[in-house]
Structures are given as C-alpha cells and as structure tokens.
Design brief:
The protein is an alpha+beta fold and 402 residues long. 32% of the residues lie in helices and 15% in strands. The chain is globular, with a radius of gyration of 21 Å.
Length: 402
C-alpha cells in the first residue's frame, strides 16, 4: 500500500538532502553514455524527485513520455539500494528470459533502462531510468470510500505482482541459504506501520511468510475499509501486539473487521494458512491461490481479468454517506486538475494519459509499487495520471506470489 507518515519505530531518513529541481530538458548521461532528457517533475519523496523522461532528442519530453527518472543526491541510500536490485534482476532481456522460461504472461518487475551520476551546481546526483506507470490505485481506493468490491479484492490478491519501490529490498535467501531468524532492535517496525508484518515489528529481516501476511492485511483493508489497529498508528508496539492477538485468534480479526454475519471465509482461511508458516519456509503459493479462487467461486465470480472499481458496499458493512460525498468531490477535483493541466501545461499539475471513464480495467495491467498503479494507457475508473511515488516510499510491500 502507499507511503504513510513515518512512524516512531521506523528508520526515518529525514536528515537526507532533497534533490534540487532540474530544469525542463536537462540531459543526463547514464553509465553506457546513453543520454536521457527530463520532462516535468511529477512527484517527490522524502529525498528524491521523479520526472517524466525520454531518450534525448531535439524534441521536448511530452506528457506521453514512456519513462520516468528517479533522481536523488548521490550520498543518499534508498535509490542506491534500489539500483542494486534493478541492475541485478530488472534488465529487459533478463525479464524476457525469465518470463519465457517460466511460461508466464508477464513478470511483475518494471524494466530497468539505465542509471548513472549527474553533476549539477557542484552537487552529485544519482539517477535511474525505468518504465513509466499510470494512476495510483490508492487514490482510487480513497475516492471509492476506501472500499473495493469482494471480487476485485480477491483478484488483486491473486495477481498483485508488480513492485516498483525497492528502497528496502533484501536478499532473504542468498546462495540458497535463508537468513536466520534474528531480532534487531534497530530495525523494529520497519515498513508502513498498518501493513507491516509481525516479524518486521520485531526487527526481523523480511521473509516470504511476512510478505503473505502483509498481503492479507491489505486485502482485509480493501474489503472492509478498516484494520483494528489503525486508530493507534503512532504507537507501533500497540500495533504489533494487536497483530499478534489477531494472528493467534484469526476470528478476533474477522469479527473486528467484519462485525456482521457476512464474513469472507476465504480471507479467514488465508490468514490461518499464513499463521502456520515458519520463518524460513517456502510457501506452496498455489495453495494460497486456490483459497482465493474458491472465494471467487463462492460469490458467483471468476478470475476473468476485469477489475470493477464502482462504489462498493461489502456484506454488512455500509458505506458512510459522508465518504460517498468525499469520493464524488475527490473525483470532481481530479477531473478539474486534469483539465487545468491540459490547458496550461504546468509542471505542477498532472496530465491524464487516458480520457476513458469506464468502471473496468484490464487486470493484467495493474501494478503493485509500494503504491498500486494502473499501467499507462489502460482503462481505469477515472483518467490515468502519472505515478506520484518518488523515492519516498521505501518498499512498503515486498510481495512475492511465486
């Protein structure tokens, strides 16, 4: 899920220097001497900025640019960590090779196109070029009164496979040997506080069971609009202890999030199965998929690749009328902002990449980025706008579904 305010237990790189704003048309040369031209800035994080980008040419970088550039001062750490991952695993030929060898329709890793250092005004900046993505799905969630339909939640659970932000990427099993369970007080509560795993709360390095636990919290939040600990996020120990109680008795979690009779049985089964995993265990991912597929079947749906982002009321949970009003206002404001951008070309406003108003989109083009986004050019609920996650969100979710 998206970046939230830094919590007391989380490492907060607040003292890192924020990258200066580069002028429209600034040219960066990567390590292979290929040149990239920057367009308008479309977002910033705690210490980095995100720009539209394209291969250098005599033309200016338009709103339909196929790439983005992440830029941050070279002495900062998160982008350097990301680069190590992207250079190792995300080169286009490597992704194509993996996809083909595993008979996949796609591999959920954005393609890495280049990186390097750039000197400006006596300062050194690190940059990385990657695929551009579309609208932040979190915004759709908020505009939808913080609720997705049962069918959509299960399909997202089945196929959330695109990760963008690897600022906290971690090799949990180097050379085939899993890291041992070790609690580190300095790492306690790493991640986005409401979704992070119990292991992370205890300062333990990421593992596959933690990834699946995080996905479970996300699905529950999407479906119910609520997590039991969300009113006490400033107290990470309270959040941790609440998660432990809910893990030990999954029925408590379900009762708090789904107080009526209509509880999603497949979510409870999913969380029970996560509970049984050991730290170093390799999950049988197909078993988790089967749980979610059975959930779709139970509500008379199938995994048809279509996501419905219409306003949803799930089971016994009714949408607050004020939330509906806020959703309508947010959607109106979004359309107004897009119209202004089209008229002015201002770099401070976001231009849509599609004018479609359909309530459905192709599921195979939904991305998980620490933020959730829709791919540029696909058909979402509202017009697409550029992704706004710069380097601020330090890998809020490390999801692996095999």
């Amino acid at each position: 899920m998206p970046y939230k305010k830094t919590t007391p237990g989380k490492r907060a790189p607040a003292k890192r220097k924020l990258a200066e704003v580069f002028a429209l048309g600034e040219v960066l040369a990567d390590t292979s001497r290929k040149e990239w031209k920057l367009g308008v800035p479309i977002g910033q994080g705690g210490f980095g900025r995100l720009y539209l980008a394209d291969v250098n040419s005599s033309k200016s970088v338009g709103s339909d640019a196929p790439y983005v550039a992440k830029v941050e001062p070279s002495q900062n750490g998160p982008l350097f960590t990301e680069l190590k991952f992207y250079m190792r695993a995300a080169k286009p030929d490597e992704i194509q090779k993996w996809t083909k060898s595993h008979k996949l329709k796609y591999l959920g890793v954005p393609r890495y196109w280049g990186s390097g250092l750039h000197e400006k005004n006596g300062n050194s900046y690190r940059f990385m070029i990657m695929d551009r993505f579309g609208r932040d799905l979190q915004k759709m969630y908020e505009e939808n009164a913080k609720r997705f339909s049962h069918k959509t939640v299960l399909q997202l659970g089945l196929r959330i496979v695109y990760l963008v932000d690897y600022g906290l990427a971690f090799r949990y099993c180097p050379e085939g040997v899993h890291k041992v369970y070790k609690e580190d007080p300095k790492r306690c509560h790493d991640g986005t506080i409401e979704y992070t795993s119990i292991d992370a709360h205890n300062g333990v390095a990421p593992s596959r069971r933690g990834d699946l636990e995080i996905l479970g919290y996300c699905m529950i939040h999407w479906l119910s609009g609520h997590l039991p600990w969300e009113d006490n996020l400033k107290d990470p120990n309270f959040v941790r202890d609440s998660k432990i109680r809910c893990r030990d008795d999954v029925s408590v979690l379900m009762d708090k999030c789904f107080p009526g009779k209509n509880k999603p049985d497949e979510i409870a089964k999913y969380m029970e199965k996560v509970k049984l995993l050991s730290y170093e265990e390799k999950p049988v991912y197909q078993h988790f998929r089967e749980i979610l597929l059975k959930g779709l079947k139970a509500i008379g749906q199938k995994d048809d690749g279509v996501l419905d982002f219409g306003l949803s009321e799930n089971g016994d949970l009714k949408t607050n009328p004020m939330q509906k009003k806020k959703r309508k206002a947010a959607a109106t404001a979004n359309e107004s902002t897009e119209a202004e951008m089209e008229d002015t070309g201002s770099p401070e406003k976001k231009k849509p990449t599609s004018s479609s108003k359909s309530k459905e989109c192709s599921h195979s083009h939904v991305y998980w980025c620490g933020r959730l986004t829709l791919a540029k050019g696909q058909t979402p609920t509202q017009p697409l706008t550029p992704l706004l996650s710069g380097t601020k969100g330090e890998n809020r979710m490390r999801k692996c579904m095999g």
